[in-house]
Amino acid sequence: MASKRHIKEKKNRDLAIPTDSFSDIAFLLIIYFILATTLTRVRSITADLPSGEKASQAQPDKTSIVNLRGSEIFFNDKKTSMEELNERLAALKLGELDGSKRVIMLESSRGTPYDNYFQALAAISANDGVVAIVQGEDK
Amino acid sequence: MGDIAFLLIIFFLVCSEASKDKSDLAVDLPYSEHVQKQKTTVVARVALDQAGQIYFDGIKVDNAKEVEGGVRTLLTNTVADEQRHVQFKCDKSQPKEKFEPILQAIAEAGGIIEAVGEKSEK
Question: Is the whole model's pTM more than 0.90, yes or no?
Fold first, then answer.
């Protein structure tokens, strides 16, 4: 009787799943996730460019316009620097306005490097402006 | 020990975002004092490298139209603004003719542009 019980217990023991290697597998998975995960966040600016139908004519009468001509910057047709552009955009207090009044048109000439464009885009976005890209005829 | 290890795995599974970014891209980022670390999750990554090659989620594409199609597909049925962010990484030397069509393509597809740059001192 005792030996029968012993055999039964042994059978049950044999059916158990071996869990000794589980921690090894788990650590291998951890190493995989550590290597595959992106923990660094990149720095960026958020620019919400309105999409819609292309206007046949620009409406520059009330809307401010930033022109990039090579390395030169113009704000409402007056030559300016990036620092000055920041100050002038801040003075407009775009954050307090609503809808279309926050739109700043951004026009650039052929060959304008992304470096300048990015700085203008960043300045407008930082001052709560909505960027509207003006497509030139030199396309 | 095994329990702790599995808890760590669950933590990484929940918190991680698998990298779709091609870190070996030859992109010299522009500088601005306004850039800041964003907390938003991007739905797609678009890049324009020094050679003028366009990448959409790490895969080479031929033109801005393909970017527009890709973003549009990803943003189908998307309503919330938080789910419309598209990362744009561009080499600072690229001319307007190269990057502007891509920016317009993202905007046309309904994406909010997250233009990546480096922080510069005032």
Answer: no
